[in-house]
Specification:
Elements lengths: L1 H25 L23 E2 L2 E2 L5 E4 L13 H4 L7 E2 L11 E2 L12 E4 L2 E2 L19 E7 L4 H4 L6 E6 L9 E9 L3 E12 L2 E12 L8 E13 L4 E16 L5 H6 L9 E19 L2 E18 L10 E2 L4 E2 L3 E22 L2 E23 L16 E19 L4 E20 L4 E23 L2 E12 L13 E3 L6 E14 L3 E22 L5 E23 L11 E15 L3 E4 L2 E4 L11 E10 L3 E10 L2 E2 L15 E2 L2 E12 L3 E8 L7 E5 L6 E4 L4 E9 L1
Parallel strand pairs: 6-9, 25-28
Antiparallel strand pairs: 1-2, 3-8, 4-5, 6-7, 8-9, 10-11, 10-40, 11-12, 12-13, 13-14, 14-15, 15-16, 16-19, 17-18, 19-20, 20-21, 21-22, 22-23, 23-24, 24-26, 26-27, 27-28, 28-29, 29-32, 30-31, 32-33, 33-36, 34-35, 36-37, 37-40, 38-39
């Protein structure tokens, strides 16, 4: 411990010394001029009213630029990347950043299942309507910016309540035939990360690609991981009007699962492992073809086709955390493990047209699009695996569940910015969805055939308002309907620990925002928003008790939820307020949200009586999320100290406080400090360092009844990494 604080003190002293040297160098004439590094503006911004073929006027939007001096890019720290976006709830499943698990305004964080996740404009969710978990996570080093649209995204991008997140990937240096970037990092628990990319331009051709390798032992025992990511983009520019690009993305990893804990186990030792033979392995491939063409100076066409070809595999000994995985004395071996496998085959084509036209003396903007989507998912679960301890998907006995899940979706949308005055605009829009789903297969050791088929047609409507108060400030507001189809892939549970209502229904609702945002030169930025979300017929989890008085989790349509609250962001320069021309800046930011997400209807049967759930917390939704930070910027150094506070929440709709299995109950409030540092030198080199959970806080962000639990999933204690990079 003393050694750690000595190292930390050395880092702080080094940063201070470097900044002082730079201040001294500023007073001298640098005749060598070794570099021309400028201070990068990485403050969050809102998206422009029109971008490409998309309309964002009147919507609550954000644009985030990943920066090694503000977030830990080496281990994909979502808590740090989204720190300046109010209201982002992060489930910290592991400290390796293998998955991004985020939600907002009462939506589920599990693999961002209620968020429309995209890369370069196309979906990455494994099965949008059947099993929309996002198993694909690119390395943050390969992302140039993150675009975020809240609930009003339902009209242009899809019907989800959680809005849209789009990773815009980096492109090659257009001034070179080839540019190379390489970052290598090592850290605690044998952490190693290697990111290597190349890109450039020659004539009408440009390209960019990367390979990323991340591995380590994990903070807990039996938590080793080995992650790989690949990306390639080859683009041909026909002329100044059009281009076509072929892209390919892949991520795969094998992760050992340390298992969930009961409350007693967590209190005794939050670092302990209850499982040593459990593994998880997703493999996702995404080919894509992107066509862009400017028909004239006012009209743009974009057509994107992409596929998703992948699988999700697990081999586990599944039992509650208080059931040890020990040698079966009758078999004289460990018990057989359960093997579950999903196979995804998806194809999507989206075509969008944007046209700018004159209406009266002002220009308005119209955008419209169509989408065709089809997906086939084969779900094979409850296979009897071996009794070994390594990652092995071979079977001893056949799968107990074998399902074929199919979806066909047609959608069309249109939105129009009506520029009523030079400062005021109205943006109405609609979306029409047609979803055709069917399922065939067998369950209960493949002895009971099952079949499901349903066609849905539904419209969604919305409108947005925007008033430009000054050149640098505006009021905005919107209301938009949203829809979440019944996830037919959840027709049967993959374990014996939970029960699913076979008569699940779709959820419908709407989202509304009213906000004010702007900036005062480069000194102060602000964004204040009030919102209201109605989530009708929400599906969620209840803790119930069987005839043997053993608690189990029941997934069903519970009732209606209303989430209402405020989201506020502000950052201020502590130096430029007094010295506008300073090459050094210190900025203080705060990202605050209050989310009052409560059930307004619903009930549970207890001891033969119906007990109302009205007034209960929506699952997994804390009232308060507050993230603050102090950042230092200079031509060479960027460093951020960040504080995160998340208030209590409950893992089920009946707000269970304690469950002896740990699979449901209270998730206590917690606070965490993180630190990131980046030093650029000699123009092409940099050194980075990060410490997550600086004060070694003991906490967890989620209880769960399935993979990777069941039980409490402890967050990582203090971890660190240091890296070196070159860009030529």
């Amino acid at each position: 411990m003393n050694r750690f604080y000595k190292i930390l003190w050395l880092i702080i002293v080094s940063v201070f010394s470097i900044s002082q040297l730079q201040a001294q160098e500023k007073t001298k004439k640098d005749t060598l001029k070794l570099d021309t590094i400028q201070i990068k503006d990485t403050r969050p911004k809102h998206l422009p009213d029109v971008s490409g073929t998309n309309i964002f006027a009147g919507k609550r939007t954000f644009l985030v630029t990943p920066d090694a001096g503000k977030s830990n890019l080496d281990n994909n720290s979502a808590r740090m990347l989204f720190a300046q976006i109010p209201g982002v709830n992060v489930w910290e499943m592991d400290g390796a950043g293998l998955q991004v698990n985020i939600g907002t305004r009462g939506t589920d964080t599990h693999r961002s299942i209620e968020t429309n996740m995209r890369q370069n404009g196309y979906n990455t969710n494994s099965d949008i309507f059947g099993y929309p978990e996002d198993h694909y996570t690119p390395p943050f080093e390969g992302i140039s910016e993150v675009q975020i649209v809240r609930g009003s995204a339902a009209l242009q991008f899809g019907s989800q309540f959680g809005g849209m997140v789009n990773y815009k990937m980096k492109e090659g240096d257009s001034t070179k035939v080839m540019g190379v970037e390489s970052d290598q990092a090592v850290g605690s628990n044998r952490f190693f990360n290697s990111f290597n990319s190349a890109g450039g331009k020659s004539g009408k051709w440009s390209y960019y690609g990367y390979f990323s390798d991340r591995n380590g032992d994990g903070w807990r025992p039996n938590a080793a991981f080995d992650y790989h990511a690949y990306y390639a983009n080859i683009k041909y520019q026909f002329n100044d009007k059009g281009s076509i690009a072929l892209q390919f993305s892949r991520t795969d990893y094998i992760q050992q699962i340390a298992g969930g804990l009961t409350d007693e186990q967590f209190d005794t030792n939050n670092r302990q492992s209850t499982r040593s033979r459990n593994f998880f392995n997703p493999e996702i491939n995404i080919p894509a073809l992107l066509f862009n063409y400017a028909l004239d100076k006012n009209t743009k066409l974009e057509v994107i086709s992409n596929g998703i070809i992948g699988q999700r595999n697990s081999v586990q000994f599944i039992a509650n955390a208080n059931v040890p995985d020990t040698v079966n004395t009758k078999l004289n071996t460990y018990n057989p493990r359960q093997v579950d496998r999903d196979y995804y085959y998806g194809f999507t084509t989206e075509a969008r047209l944007l046209h700018r036209y004159q209406l009266g003396n002002l220009y308005s903007t119209f955008t419209a699009g169509i989408r065709y989507f089809e997906e086939h998912t084969q779900r094979r679960q409850k296979g009897v695996g071996d009794t070994g301890s390594d990652f092995d998907l071979n079977l001893v006995q056949p799968y107990g569940i074998d399902l074929h899940l199919n979806t066909t979706n047609y959608a069309a949308f249109a939105e129009n910015i009506f520029q009523v005055t030079p400062k005021f605009s109205i943006t109405p829009g609609f979306r029409m969805e047609d979803i055709q789903t069917d399922m065939t297969g067998a369950i209960v050791n493949q002895t009971v055939p099952v079949a499901y088929k349903q066609d849905r047609d539904f419209p969604l409507f919305g409108t947005g308002l925007q008033y430009q108060l000054t050149q640098n400030s505006q009021f905005y507001g919107n209301i938009s309907q949203a829809y979440r189809p019944y996830l037919y892939a959840a027709v049967t549970p993959a374990d014996q620990l939970s029960v699913i209502n076979p008569n699940l229904k779709d959820s419908r609702g709407y989202s509304a925002d009213l906000g004010y945002r702007g900036s005062v030169k480069s000194v102060f930025n602000y964004d204040l928003d009030a919102y209201y979300v109605y989530y009708g017929n929400r599906a969620g989890t209840l803790t119930e008790t069987n005839s043997s008085n053993v608690p189990y989790l029941y997934y069903t349509n519970i009732g209606n939820v209303v989430a209402k609250g405020i989201e506020a962001y502000g950052d201020v320069s502590l130096l430029r307020s007094f010295n506008k021309g300073s090459d050094i800046d210190i900025r203080l930011f705060n990202s605050l949200s209050y989310d009052h997400a409560r059930y307004t209807s619903g009930s549970i049967s207890q001891s033969g009586k119906n007990v109302s759930l009205a007034g209960n917390y929506a699952e997994g939704t804390p009232d308060w999320i507050d993230r603050s930070g102090l950042s230092y910027f200079s031509r060479h150094v960027t460093s951020t100290l960040q504080f995160s506070y998340v208030s209590k929440n409950f893992s089920d709709a009946n707000n269970t406080v304690f469950n002896p299995t740990g699979a449901s109950g209270l998730v206590p409030a917690y606070h965490v400090f993180d630190w990131a540092f980046n030093y650029n030198f000699l123009k092409n080199y940099h050194i980075s360092a990060s410490i997550n959970n600086l004060l070694n806080e003991k906490y967890f962000t989620r209880r769960i009844n399935m993979y990777p639990g069941p039980g409490i999933l402890p967050a990582d204690g203090r971890t660190f990494n240091i890296g070196f990079g070159i860009k030529i």
